[in-house]
Amino acid sequence: MKSAVVLLPGLNRDRDMIAALTKISGQAPATVWQTDTEIPDVDLIAIPGGFSFGDYLRCGAIAARMPVMRAVAEKAAKGVPVIGVCNGFQILVEAGLLPGALMRNASLKFVCRQVKLEIANANTMFTRHYKPGQIIRSPVAHHDGNYFADAETLARLEGEGQVVFRYAEGTNPNGSINDIAGIVNDKGNVLGLMPHPENLIEAAHGGNDGRALFESALGIAA
Amino acid sequence: MKARITVTLKNGVLDPQGKAIEHALSGLGFDGVGQVRQGKVFDIELTGTDKAKAEADLKAMCDKLLANTVIENYAVEIA
């Protein structure tokens, strides 16, 4: 199973994403740089977390307008699975590949802790190895994860099962609307989430709750 | 030609930073401060002289980059 990781200046979770994909898929992902206009044929494209372009203007705003993101959009339109974690989620939203916006945490504080997530939709290519309603653990580390969408968009997301991950048991760390932690696009092949599943994939991490997400996306039997 | 673009949050979008500033102002003893909303200002120098074209370009800049129209409004002002 082949994957690719998008690299942008200011990302800092790229090594974690590369390590997770290497361990889970059995081979190192290809890496694509911000100026690349083509992405090799892969089964999964991942945009890692961090602070691309120093979060200048808005988180993910500059990165979303780099040439590599046009290539990501082309692949996404062809149905290639794309996952954006943390800053990667912000970049996907800014690029218009996912609806809504990610705003400053309601607490105004950077949060770095473990939260609980409910699998709000286990019928997606990213969550098929989880059970519906299953509660998993995941680390979060962000300053701007407060998901917002207008009422019409929100109703559509909820109605179509596009809300995939929700903060559970009062662990919403950022004030996001409807406790939304992760969503997919209407075609279901682009996922954005604020938590870091790549940081909980093996015993050394203290658990492997995040592993099934990548196994689901890569079509690897659990 | 000089232009100023003002980007503000749309009504109904929660602004925790504005709220914090509001509280800080009342903490400093400024009575009678109502709601505070935080925004951004961009001063842009343009080399052309065609005002109509500049206005169209500036609006396109806002739609494509300077504002996130999901949550923000913008106003364009040409000096």
Automatic annotation (TrEMBL), chain B:
It is found in: Cytoplasm. It comes from the Bacteria. It catalyses: N(2)-formyl-N(1)-(5-phospho-beta-D-ribosyl)glycinamide + L-glutamine + ATP + H2O = 2-formamido-N(1)-(5-O-phospho-beta-D-ribosyl)acetamidine + L-glutamate + ADP + phosphate + H(+). GO terms for biological process: 'de novo' IMP biosynthetic process. Coiled coil: none annotated. Keywords: ATP-binding, Cytoplasm, Ligase, Nucleotide-binding, Purine biosynthesis. Its EC number is 6.3.5.3. Signal peptide: none annotated. Its main location: cytoplasm. GO terms for molecular function: ATP binding; phosphoribosylformylglycinamidine synthase activity. The keyword Cytoplasm applies. InterPro entries: PurS, PurS-like_sf. PANTHER family: PHOSPHORIBOSYLFORMYLGLYCINAMIDINE SYNTHASE SUBUNIT PURS. Belongs to the PurS family. Part of the FGAM synthase complex composed of 1 PurL, 1 PurQ and 2 PurS subunits. This is Phosphoribosylformylglycinamidine synthase subunit PurS. It comes from Mesorhizobium atlanticum.
